[in-house]
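Why predict the complex rather than its parts? Because the way molecules touch one another can change local conformation, and only a joint prediction can capture that. The input here totals 621 residues.
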Amino acid sequence: MTAIREDFAEILKLVRPKARVLDVGCGEGELLELLTREKQVDGQGLELSPENVAACVTRGLSVVQGDGDRDLDHFPTRAFDYAILSKTLQQMREPRHVLNELLRIAEQAVVSVPNFGHWKVRWALLSGGRMPETGALPEPWWSTPNIHLCTLRDFVDLCDQLELRIDACAALSDSGPARPIDPRVPLENWRAETALFLLSRKSEPAAPRALPQQNLFGEVDLPKPEGPAPKRRRKA
Amino acid sequence: MTAQGPIQAETETGGGTWRFPANRPLRLDSGATLAPLEVAYKTYGRLNEAKSNAVLVCHALTGDQHLASTHPVTGKPGWWDRFVGPGKPLDPERHFIICSNVIGGCMGSTGPASTDPATGQPYGLKFPVITIADMVRAQAMLIEALGIETLFAAIGGSMGGMQVQQWAADYPEKLFSAVIIAAAARHSAQNIAFHEVGRQSIMADPNWMNGAYLTAGVRPEKGLAVARMAAHITYLSEAALQRKFGRELQRDGLSWGFDADFQVESYLRHQGASFVDRFDANSYLYITRALDYFDLAARHDGVLAEAFVKARHVRFCVLSFSSDWLYPTAESRDIVRALNGAGCRTSFAEIATDKGHDAFFLDEPLLDQTLRGFLGAQAQARGLP
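Output of the joint prediction:
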């Protein structure tokens, strides 16, 4: 494996070494294997397809067959440092419940969502008058698994409603490297094709950052949530 | 036999009966003791120098130690022949595979048909009631006697899967990995109900003679056969029965009587009749009782996760079959939830099949693939070839 998927590369930067990680919808376990190899994480997967579970198990990964909507109750509270949900929140029947569950199980959630506010999507709808089909959303409306699409702004609103803190955010695209963004800036709602969020609960103190990459997303200022700002440096 | 040259046996088999002297009794959950204890077992392959390649396979209710070699009574291939052998997921060239007859059984381990040293007669109903934990304790004695400290894997389906869970609860330090197939952490009311039908059927046979039939020189064959027929239905799914037999008749036309008109009747009668040749009725009573008494959480204040907290270093693989209504997927998910709760590394998959509980013995490519993958990855983790 030479090229690493852009979102995987970003997640790899976010995760602390030796952390406990749950990957929801882990597929054939590429990300978990990468995290295990590069960050020596203690990984666990949840995956819908038994064929994929077999592939994961063959890689030496621990993966439970199940559905992110229904089976997150398999995992005890605070069993993980990170729960990862990559590009599937929009396929869940109850995205709010899933987000709450991720942050029950784990201290922080790493969630990526395609942005329905991206200019290509807006243009496709405006110019063609049809459901957009883009690189990030390739399927026609009648076969898409994406039943709960949202824009960047919608997602930020939901985080506010659920009292979630956005600890970091990056825009992902197939064509270029990941770009750290402030998801509350209106222009980003046009520019970001997919956004990757690191989330935690506002009710809990900010988690220590991944070391040694403290400046996960370069030098850009992160969104300022209400309450005490997440600290970049923390004494042990 | 040639004296020289590297001769590699295809499947090196061994085993026999391990007899523990009377001063090494088996202490039972009931408070009773069993001595002298005999454990009949088979082995395939060779224990490596580091003693790190031992695999214990735990058999199901009516299984025995003849895992992958011809059964001495029926002449049929071993019950998991398709899984154990050269090039198969359990490979005698790489693993040292052990399978022992459970205590209470009737293929050589101490059971109700064994001679009671107090009377010189078969135990019959004087045999103490045993539990899954007692079976596992006897296995642990055997493993120790064979000089093995840690099992590379303990594997079992159905009642075998219950024994594997008990191993994880009672001897976690002796386990490296564990595979639990089509099992449950306790017997449900429905499970107990079906077993009660079987037991009542045996006890209603006049030849049962209150358990003393061996002394009288008879056998409650009819009762045992009916018990097997009822149980056999629970091993198959409705879809599998329908596919196999439908309403097909044995002969042209109906008999207008009570002969086996339908093929499914004839099949069940055959299952019952051939079972009595190889199984002891009292063993059936004792082993079904052990299953009914099984409730792993009970000893841990009803919290199943507590049973597994000392097994955090063990890698678990739990598998269920979608059409298994004896131990349905929900039961396996309870085990998985508890293992996760205890912080154990756990994999789980539900194999989609319409073959019911017995899919464990049948050709299920995804079952093979998952087990092969799991064992391969665990072997790598343990530094085995």
